[in-house]
Amino acid sequence: ISRNPGELEFHQAVREVFDSLPRVLSRHPQYVEASILERICEPERQIIFRVPWTDDEGNVHINRGFRVQYNSALGPYKGGLRFHPSVLLGTVKFLGFEQIFKNALTGLPIGGGKGGSDFDPKGRSDAEIMRFCQSFMTEAYRHLGDRVDVPAGDIGVGGREIGYLFGQYKRITNRYESGVLTGKGISWGGSLVRTEATGYGTVFFTQHMLATRGRSFDGAKVLVSGSGNVAIYAIEKVTELGGTVVGASDSSGSIYDPDGIDLQLLREIKEVRRGRISEYAQERDRAEYIGGAPVWAVAEKTPVDVALPCATQNELDEQDAARLIAAGVQAVAEGANMPTTPEAIRALRDAGVLFGPGKAANAGGVATSALEMQQNATRDSWSFEYTEQRLAEIMENIHTRCAETAEEYGVPGDYVSGANIAGFTQVADAMIAQGVI
Ligand code: NDP
């Protein structure tokens, strides 16, 4: 803590992993002897840079760019870029630290990294977004490469931004290096299912958790927070599996739709118009807008079987957990990174609610990014069905690995410990094999 002052989210992420490790360290003293805990907390490299750009009126703006190359024991650094005004070094470090273990859980050869900027894309024109992305890449390109570091999207970075970033990388390097970024457009090196992967994967993981109690999504009432990339495709898959999503949100407020979210309308508002979720309630008969409240407030109006936080960190607190428990929630799985506070996780688990941590439950996005890299490396492109099948298998394997590891270490049903221990031991073993570097 004294070495990384003020990086509260980073401290929270490290504490959560370390809390799972006492049993591992007593069983495997080699990790202590090789100082793995000290080494794994320290990024291999962190890059902070100036991103100057000009808005449509000719005003110059200066933002800060970050790339934290955290751990390359298992493969090239891999992790998204976040463009949001709240981004600080500590935010990128928390996300990068989580990414190390998540990527290990996918079973694919990818190390952990993360990046982004405190740039706020809201309300900016396409031309402004393009100039920002070009300026960001003008510095970032020298640190990237398909065998070095492969960024992807995250909050505020979707297909449009990846396109501008890729274009600038290609222009500076004079190389058509498809595998340097993932989340590309389908016609120029992207993978089918990548857009859907995180949301779908979270739902697949939850399906396996529910199955351990003989339950399923069929007939379930579900709350999903957010209405961005992860949320939209989580809603789509839940609906496909027979569930009804009765609430969603954005950073301004939430909607309650007792008839189930009309995904076409939601996508039109969020993806095409880039509008606010309040517009949904204006255009849908029985839907209600609850301004300024998290979607978990909807649990006061209706029973809830499953909750999928898919927006941002620390968005589901102890009070929200109490609301969900009172509404009868059976399972909570994190589509977002660290959306549930430690106190809320404790409350949910004490109440016997199945809890899937983000490292495991939202790993489908990065896993499909790694599948995109595989397709780029072999200059191939796979069908939607085949790629979705691979995603489904990966999510099933992650679920099995977390469940078996939890069992092996004497905490059956504890997916948090299972995910942390399985990811940690794999990375730690590789670090020991590769020497003190
Ligand atoms: P998007 O930018 O597409 O969407 C984020 C959504 O969350 C928006 O609807 C945003 O609303 C909403 N939001 C932000 N802050 C809050 C808040 N405090 N309360 C309620 N809603 C809020 O991002 P993604 O969907 O890509 O990412 C969401 C989460 O999933 C992040 O934690 C990310 O790290 C994680 N993740 C994403 C992956 C991916 O493949 N995209 C992979 C793995 C994890 P508004 O429009 O008002 O800002």
UniProtKB/TrEMBL annotation:
Keyword DNA-binding: no
Keyword Oxidoreductase: yes
Domain Glutamate/phenylalanine/leucine/valine/L-tryptophan dehydrogenase C-terminal: 191-435
Entries under Pfam families matching the protein: ELFV_dehydrog (PF00208), ELFV_dehydrog_N (PF02812)
Keywords linked to the UniProt accession: Oxidoreductase
Quaternary structure (record): Homohexamer.
PANTHER family to which the protein is assigned, alphabetical: NADP-SPECIFIC GLUTAMATE DEHYDROGENASE 1-RELATED
Protein name: Glutamate dehydrogenase
Lineage: Bacteria, Bacillati, Actinomycetota, Actinomycetes, Micrococcales
